[in-house]
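Q: Could you write out the predicted structure for this multi-component system? I'm mainly interested in how the pieces pack against one another.
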Amino acid sequence: MIDVATRPAPSTSDRTGWWRSDGSEPVRRNLGLVGVLTLLLIVGMVTRSDIFLNGHRLWNNELTVLTQASSIGVVTIGMTFVMISGGIDLSVGALLALASVWSTTVATQSYGPGVMIMAALLVGTGSGLVNGILIAYGRMVPFIATLAMMVAARGLAQKISGKLTQIVRVDDINKIAEWKPLGIPLLVIIFAVVAVLAWILLNRTTFGRRTVAIGGNAEAARLAGINLRVHTLLVYALSGLCCGIAAVMVTAQATAGSSDHGNLYELNAIAAAIIGGTALTGGRGTIVGSVLGVLVFTQIYNLFIVKNLQTEYQLIAQGVIIVAAVLIQQFRVAALRRPAPPGA
Amino acid sequence: MRHLPDDPSRRRLLLGGAALGTGALLAGCTSNAEKNSNSNDSGQTKVNAGDNAAPGKAVTIGFSAPAADHGWIRAITDNAAKQAGLYKDVTLKKVDAGKDAPAQVAALQTLIQQKPDVIVLLPQDGAQLTATGKAAMEAGIPVVNLDREFSDAGAARLLIKGDNYGMGLAAGQYIGAKLKGKTDAVIAEIAGIDNLPLTQDRSRGFKDGLAQYGLKVGNRVAAQFTVQSGQDVTANLLQAAPKIDAIWNHDDDQGVGVLAAIKQAGRKEFFMVGGAGSLDAMEHIRTGDTPLECTVTYPPTMASSAISLARLIAQGKGLSDLVELQVPKEIVLASETITKSNVDKYLPLGFRS
């Protein structure tokens, strides 16, 4: 998974120098995250050698980490686009809950798995579109618009579900979390496919270049002929679609839809994107970095449970990592403000 | 600069409005709340025949409980409303508890001004609502403290609560009896929100229950009482312990996720004990299709009982089976152990998670 995702990244900077050019900064950062992941695995090998030095158990454990990372990973990928465009989407967790509840009502379940999946994707995308309309056409600040959506969507999810857990009786949906083609869980495959598609979308299409341009300098992007409103709309719809996909994944894993699903996903997704190098101010960020960011958090979580430690230590560790990542980012910004050396 | 989008045009506002409206409309169509609430809780409210059931002085009962965020609290609110509906002489005045303890304090101050005959209160937080309970008592309104205990016994006329310690004890004793003599048994515990006193009480009881049989907890994880968190911690827990003999999961709501993770991992070498007594858990116990073979109760029917007792307090009557003329001061419900052999009897009491 990591190999597949990281391999294409250096190609963007092959033409210029590798280590010195500014373009290689994301690569260096991603290597740093790979280093953190390696460090976590070494900690595991030292403290729980029975798992981390046993090939079969290590494989199973890491597949579990990837599986548990898959839904938040997909959400984080959507969040990465929004943040690169200079916005923020606080509603992702609530949209996930709404999509999961909507697709698991007694009525929807009676139509079978196809309709359930379509319902989740449509609700996610539709709510993302509403976010986009409020921000692009209602000219609301993204923070406020998506905050309102976060509260309202969670409320609507509670209203629809009657605050009950909606257990899924459609076996094909639950199978999504059980099926392992070639020994790889389907959820992990979905995560990988979404990540690869997102990478292509960000790095190899005009949509991706425009997203970066808008986040870097909206006015310049507008003068260059980019339709800011339409593009903003699409970015939030994309984030909503990712929530819809993640909703199907979470619903399958939990074998139920619930208005509690995706609790705090907005914060986890933002945190993962930030340690992956996405700038809160927009214009900068990579899919590979976000994926690695999610994996770092999920691996820590796994390590703490495997070590039988209580959750409070894990929360502290997460906080420290976020602070460290942002500090590194600040130093980098400070370095950029210095006059560029000639020929750079 | 004329082409700049200076004014949010009316057409576009309309478009946004239409999108919102369509969303709301569609939501209305898919709602299934009604279907959910009508079924399967016929046994959760009850009026026994006898002198006390006869209509007496008209009583207004004020009721406040936290907003339902999971099945158990929802069952509490539903049961209170339904039980009040069974009495012709009871009017229930529900006030929203708001988001947190200060909001509930504010709501209750309004309620006290309206002078109900008695107040049934499930606090957001027992300690933070104690002063409010006292204020109501001083205003001459008896308070029935439901489940989460005040820090001062003088703040309530009656305390009726479940037994968290007893719940852990019952789970520990059930597991202990089955694994007796197997001192190397691996026992895992899946707790709820870890910083709540109720979780700590349950864990303490569980530890004591196991200790009676010379056993102890091997792996312990804490979830958030939600299905998703239950799935998440369990998936990781099953990696941490390749062979488990028994699992106690504190809460049947999160148990849906726990059972999902167990199924996804394809593990079945252990048996599992649940907690609270949801309908879903009872159905699994009855059919035996999962490792869940027992659950220890923490019954939301206590809300029904609280309403009945509040009525008696307001009417100045006692419990007919007791010699005393007044309702007792404190009632702690026993945590009952539900297994395949007695599950049919308990099914009507199961709440939808």
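A: Regarding packing and overall arrangement: The longest strand of chain B covers residues 59-64.
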